[in-house]
Amino acid sequence: PKGVINDWRKFKLESEDRDSLPLSKKEILRQMSSPHRSFSKDDKDTRERFCRKMSMQEYELIQDEKEDESCLQKYRKRCMQDMHQRLSFGPKYGYLCELQNGEQFLEAIEKERKTTTVIVHIYEDGIKGCDALNSSLTCLAAEYATVKFCKIKASDTGAGDRFSDEVLPTLLVYKGGELLSNFISVSEQFNDEFFAVDVESFLNEYGLLPERELPALGNGNTDEQDVE
Question: Where does the Phosducin domain start and stop, copy by copy (predicted)?
Answer without folding.
Answer: 1-221
